[in-house]
Amino acid sequence: MATQTHDPRLALRAEHDDALPDGAWWPRSRTLGHELTELFDEWPASRGAIVRVLYSAPDWEDLPRWVPVHGKRMKTGHFASDDTHRLVLSMLDASRCRITVIPPATPATDAARLLGEVTADDVVGPRDQAR
Predict the structure, then answer these.
(1) Pick from 10, 35, 38, 50: CA 20 to 30 A from residue 72's CA?
(2) With helix as H, strand as E and coil as C, how does 15-81 read?
(3) What pTM did the predictor assign?
């Protein structure tokens, strides 16, 4: 059985600020269909339920219209323009969460620095470590 590392891959700001992204995410690959399941696994329940995902097409090898997440079909779409390195998560409460995507090939030390820059020390790791 493979051992999964627990390096933080998702960091979220404690408070929303219109001028800044709400967080950063460092996926393991450029296959969005697979990576979204991992994002949902790490997403803290206290931040609300995600109902739709908009993504930057140049960041991904696949361009799904929906992906299976925990037995449900999650609707996805991509930006009309090349707004690279961004996800916009539509939440159940009608709010939006803007997430910066750190390219998967980014070295771990650089990704950790970028996650830290987005959130100071508000790094969220696996779901069981959420606030």
Answers:
(1) 10
(2) CCCCCCCCEEECCCCCCHHHHHHHHHHHCCHHHCCEEEEEECHHHCCCCCCEEEECCEEEEEEECCC
(3) 0.84
Quote the CA–CA distance of 90 and 104 in Å, as a whole number: 23
**For the stretch 22-51, what's the b/e string if a residue is b when 16 or more beta carbons lie within 10 angstroms of its beta carbon?**
bbbbbbeebebbebbebbbebbbeebeebe
Residues sharing a CB contact under 8 Å with residue 52, sequence separation 6 or more, in sequence order: 74, 75, 76, 77, 89, 90
- pLDDT by residue for the chain (131 residues), tens digit each? 333 455 789 999 998 888 899 999 999 999 999 999 999 999 999 999 999 999 999 999 999 999 999 899 999 999 877 778 999 999 999 999 999 999 999 999 999 999 998 876 454 554 444 43
CA 102 to chain centre: 9
Q: Give bridge partners of residue 97 from the DSSP assignment.
A: 89
Q: Name the one residue in this structure whose structure tokens are 């998702």.
A: 10
